[in-house]
Write a structure and sequence with these properties.
With 299 residues, the chain is an alpha+beta fold. Helix content is 14%, strand content 30%. The strands form three sheets. Strands 6, 7, 8, 9, 10, 11, 12, 13, 14, 15 and 16 form an eleven-stranded mixed sheet that branches. Strands 2-4-3 form a three-stranded antiparallel sheet, with no helix packed on it. The longest helix has 9 residues. It comes from BD1-7 clade bacterium. One of its GO terms (molecular function) is RNA binding. Pfam families: PseudoU_synth_2.
Length: 299
């Protein structure tokens, strides 16, 4: 059993969903966690309030109280790839995240994530990611070091004041001459079923990407992608919509049966560059990962 080194937290909702205790709320909030698991966590002192006082099975529900708990998984995988710190100053840290490593804890990962690895290696407990990459995507992730300036960097992403460049590899028709061509993709992306997947539907566009082919070798092609918006799985869906799903994508165009990670066949998507004006120092920033995706030799 692996137990998270740091607590997860949630705020009880303003409207009571019809429960008398915190325990009852957690049971309906997390239907896939057995009620006895919550009872045991409370008995072991692994659920508490913001002030550190323990939540018990009899603790009454009170709106907007913060609840802290420690996630547990039976067997947490260890990802055999190393992160790299690209840059840091007093406000931010930028690191390269390898394929398969989550940015923050989630699912079967409670300690094995980029954020916790960097906290351990740097000793900076205040380190917090200000944006996300999919676990299966590699590339640059920016972290805030100073809680007092963190909101400025969150706003960069929320207001689209940051320019992101990705690389992707897809299989194409060898007879197509795509190099130099550019496509602008706009459409509406919403949650699908299962909930971790997304889909394109009719309606007002909420996603926007600019995609350009920069190299071809046989059927394989290398694309440069610029997401203007930041919807979940946006680039993966936009490449699929153009007819070239990203190589080794287990979600699109068709969700594949769950299997253990194949470390020899990562999703061919790389977050390569971040460009922005630093909202605190007003310096122009351009962070670049010098690794490249390689076209398959038998493409």
């Amino acid at each position: 059993m692996t137990i998270s080194e740091r607590p997860s937290k949630l705020s009880l909702p303003q409207e009571n969903p019809g429960v008398a205790t915190v325990l009852e709320y957690l049971i309906i909030k997390f239907p896939y966690i057995d009620a006895q698991v919550w009872r045991q966590r409370m008995a072991d002192g692994k659920v508490h309030y913001h002030d550190g006082s323990l939540v018990t099975a009899q603790s009454p529900f009170q709106a907007q109280q913060r609840i802290y708990y420690y996630r547990e998984v039976e067997n947490e995988p260890s990802i055999p790839f190393k992160e790299t710190i690209i840059f840091q100053d007093q406000h931010i840290l930028v690191a390269y995240k390898p394929h398969f490593l989550p940015v923050i804890p989630g699912g079967i990962y409670v300690n094995e994530c980029l954020q916790d690895r960097l906290r351990r290696s740097t000793g900076i407990e205040t380190l917090q990611a200000v944006h996300r990459l999919d676990r299966v995507t590699a590339g640059l992730v920016m972290f805030s070091k100073d809680p007092d300036t963190r909101h400025h960097y969150h706003r960069l992403f929320a207001t689209r004041q940051i320019h992101k460049t990705y690389q992707a590899i897809a299989m194409t028709d060898a007879s197509d001459n795509l190099v130099g061509q550019e496509w602008e993709v706009t459409n509406r992306i919403v949650r699908s079923e299962p909930r971790f997947c997304m889909r394109v539907v009719e309606g007002e566009a909420n996603s926007h990407s600019v995609i350009r082919c920069v190299q071809q070798s046989g059927r394989a092609a290398l694309f440069e992608l610029h997401p203007v918006t930041g919807k979940t799985h946006q680039l993966r869906l936009h490449m699929q919509g153009l007819g070239w799903p990203i190589l080794n994508d287990d979600y699109y165009p068709e969700l594949q049966p769950f299997t253990a990670d194949d470390y020899s066949a990562p999703l061919q998507l790389l977050a390569k560059k971040l460009e922005f004006t630093d909202p605190v120092t007003q310096q122009s920033r351009c962070f670049y990962y010098d690794g490249e995706l390689s076209l398959p030799k038998d493409g």
